[in-house]
Amino acid sequence: MRTIMKKSILATAVAVTALMGATAASAEGEKYILVSHAPDSDSWWNTIKNGIALAGSQVGADVEYRNPPTGDIADMARIIEQAAASGPDGIITTLADYDVLKGPIMAAVDQGIDVIIMNTGTPEQAREVGALMYVGQPEYDAGFAAGVRAKGEGVTNFLCVNHAIQQPTVAERCRGYAEGLGIELGSAMMDSGTDPAEIKNKVLAYLSANPDVDGILTLGPVSADPTIAALQENGMAGDIHFGTFDLGEEIVKGIKGDIINWGIDQQPFLQAYMPVIILANWDRYGVLPGNNINSGPGFVTKDGLTKVEEFAGEYR
Description:
Layout: H1 2-26, E1 31-35, H2 46-59, E2 62-66, H3 73-85, E3 90-93, H4 98-110, E4 114-119, H5 123-128, E5 133-136, H6 139-152, E6 158-162, H7 168-181, E7 189-191, H8 196-209, E8 215-218, H9 221-234, E9 241-245, H10 249-256, E10 262-265, H11 268-285, E11 293-294, E12 298-300, H12 305-311
Parallel strand pairs: 1-2, 1-3, 3-4, 4-5, 5-11, 6-7, 6-8, 8-9, 9-10
Antiparallel strand pairs: 10-12
């Protein structure tokens, strides 16, 4: 009986000590800065902001989101330099253009700042710049999976609407899609820009000039939403195969209304949430996952919309 009591007291002491340690750690208030390549106009990144905010509140860390207002990559490089100069405990950043961003990221690592690459870039590039790990969706692999699926669903000729042509990693979605279909990419990738009216008009013009196109791939809400409007205008909504990357309010409506066949969910919430949790545990306890984390791809169809529809634009 006495032995049992001793064990019970010891277990309680350990639990209290652990709780005190966790409370002390939470009070440390580490500073983590997430830098993205997204322009202010891209609402998809609201989920990223929600992800770091929730993770920061849960671990008691100070988190901040920074981005170039127009999506300019050179401006993003300067923001990473400024973030590093402020002396944070960690930087979470996209790697939208390896050649432009590797310098400031490696400089931050050399300063002793822990870095996690999220969303864009590759695990290999993350290792090359000295980051702890990569959390995101391998873009080529996701595009290839989309192409294989689209081929099985009858697509033989396609248009890929790329609203982020300045970001080489995003184009990998189009390249993977083409190779999954077994078709040369060629001129099928459109530089659509980001203006909704311009995107809609470009899609309408392309489809008019290329009546044999039977499949469309968009790379996110910025290009998907105007493409939906284009198809509604020319009467092709629901009659042409339509797949898209990412989710958003209009994309969810499009899937529900049989305009979009499926959305590819890379789970942006996890891309922001997990790095904050990982950095906090690394800083406090020296524990780190043994590999990179693939947050996608996952295909969302009409049959699986319940949770997605509830949290689209917020946590999905």
